[in-house]
Specification:
Largest sheet: 6 strands, parallel
Structural class: alpha/beta
Helix content: 40-55%
Oligomer: single chain
Strand order of the largest sheet: 3-2-1-4-5-6
Number of domains: 2
Distance between the termini: 47 Å
Shape: globular
CATH architecture of the largest domain: Alpha-Beta Complex
CATH superfamily of the largest domain: Lactate dehydrogenase/glycoside hydrolase, family 4, C-terminal
CATH topology of the largest domain: L-2-Hydroxyisocaproate Dehydrogenase, Chain A, domain 2
Order of helices and strands: EHEHEEHEHEHEEEEEHHHEEEH
CATH class of the largest domain: Alpha Beta
Length: about 325
C-alpha cells in the first residue's frame, strides 16, 4: 500500500503575504496562470485579504479551478512557495533605498512567523528594496540560500526589452538583454551581451537602418531606470508589470523550467563580489536558485556592477543587525 505523506509540500499551494497593490496584482496574475490549485492571502488587515480573495474568486469561473482564501501564518503549512510583497510602498520622490528601515522592520515581524511554521519551500521576496530585503529574509529565515530569492531585475529586464523592441520595431520577446545589479538607481544595462535572436545589437540596427550609439543607449537605459518613478508620479504605484514578472518566476519554479532569469541571490566571488544579494542571471528551478550564469560584460560594466554591490552592502550593513 502506498504510504501517505502527512508533511509533504503541496507543490500547487502558494501563499501571498501582503495584499496591497502589488500583492493583489500578483494574486490576480497567479490565479489566471493555472499554476496553483490553492492560494492563501495574508495581510495585517484581514478584511483587505478577505476582500481581495472574494474579488479574485469571482474570476475563477473564467480560469482554472483554484481555492483562494484569506488566511493566517498557520496556513503556510505545506505551501511550496511564498510570495512576500508586504512592505511600505514607494511614494513620489522616494527611491527604493529610502524604504530600507521601514521594510526591514516589517520583515522582522513577518519572517520569524514563517520560520516558526518550519516552511521549507521557496521564499520569493518582491518588496523593495528587493536586493537588500532578500539578504534580510535569508538571514532571518534560516532557509538554505537557494530557497530565498528576490524578484530582482526581472521587471527591469522586461522594461529594457520593451524599450528596445519599440526602438528596433521588433517583437520584444526576440530581444535578449539583461538589466543587472541593484533593482534601482545603480542598475546596469548589460549592453555588451545584447542580441536580437542571436544577432548582435549593432548589426541588427544596421539591418534596420537605425543608428545606435552611446546617446541612444543611455536614453533607453535612463528610461528603463526611471520608468517606475514616472508611473508612480502618474498613478501612485506600479503593480501590473511586477505581477507579470512574479508570475514568470513562479512558472520557472513550479514547472522546474531551469529558466535563466535575473533574480536576486547571494553572490560568492563572481565578478569580485561577495556576501551581498544582487540581481544577476541565474538558472531557476523547483528548488529556487541553482547557479549564476556568466554573461558577457566589458570592464566598465563590471566596474559599475561592483559599485552597485558596494552601495547595497553599505546600506545593508548600516541598517540591519541580525
Amino acid at each position: 500500500m502506498e504510504k501517505i505523506c502527512l508533511n509533504c509540500t503541496n507543490v500547487r499551494k502558494v501563499v501571498i503575504i501582503g495584499c496591497g497593490f502589488v500583492g493583489a496584482a500578483c494574486s490576480f496574475a497567479l490565479m489566471q496562470s493555472g499554476l496553483f490549485s490553492e492560494m492563501v492571502l495574508i495581510d495585517s488587515d484581514r478584511a483587505k485579504a478577505e476582500g481581495e480573495a472574494l474579488d479574485i474568486n469571482h474570476g475563477v469561473p473564467f480560469a482554472k479551478p483554484i481555492k483562494i482564501y484569506a488566511g493566517d501564518y498557520n496556513d503556510i503549512e505545506k505551501a511550496s512557495l511564498i510570495v512576500l510583497t508586504a512592505g511600505a510602498s514607494q511614494k513620489t520622490g522616494e527611491t527604493r533605498l529610502d524604504l530600507v528601515k521601514k521594510n526591514i522592520s516589517i520583515f522582522k515581524s513577518i519572517i520569524p512567523e514563517i520560520k516558526k511554521r518550519k516552511f521549507n519551500g521557496v521564499l520569493l521576496v518582491v518588496a523593495n528594496p528587493v536586493d537588500i530585503l532578500t539578504s534580510v529574509a535569508l538571514k532571518l529565515s534560516g532557509l538554505a540560500e537557494n530557497k530565498v530569492i528576490g524578484s530582482g531585475t526581472v521587471l527591469d529586464t522586461a522594461r529594457l526589452k520593451y524599450e528596445l523592441g519599440n526602438y528596433l520595431n521588433v517583437d520584444s520577446r526576440s530581444v535578449h538583454a539583461f538589466i543587472i545589479g541593484e533593482h534601482g538607481d545603480s542598475e546596469i544595462a548589460a549592453w555588451s551581451g545584447v542580441n536580437i535572436s542571436g544577432v548582435p545589437l549593432d548589426k541588427f540596427c544596421e539591418m534596420r537602418g537605425l543608428s545606435i550609439h552611446d546617446g541612444n543607449l543611455q536614453k533607453i537605459a535612463e528610461d528603463v531606470k526611471n520608468s517606475a518613478y514616472e508611473i508612480i508620479n502618474k498613478k501612485r504605484a506600479t503593480y501590473y508589470g511586477v505581477a507579470m514578472a512574479v508570475k514568470r518566476i513562479c512558472e520557472a519554479i513550479i514547472r522546474d523550467e531551469k529558466s535563466i532569469l535575473p533574480i536576486s541571490s547571494v553572490m560568492h566571488g563572481e565578478y569580485g563580489i561577495d556576501g551581498v544579494s544582487l540581481s544577476m542571471p541565474a538558472i531557476v528551478g523547483k528548488e529556487g536558485f541553482e547557479t549564476h550564469v556568466p554573461i558577457q560584460l566589458n570592464e566598465e560594466e563590471i566596474t559599475n556592477l561592483q559599485k552597485s554591490a558596494k552601495i547595497l552592502k553599505a546600506i545593508l550593513d548600516e541598517n540591519f543587525v541580525n
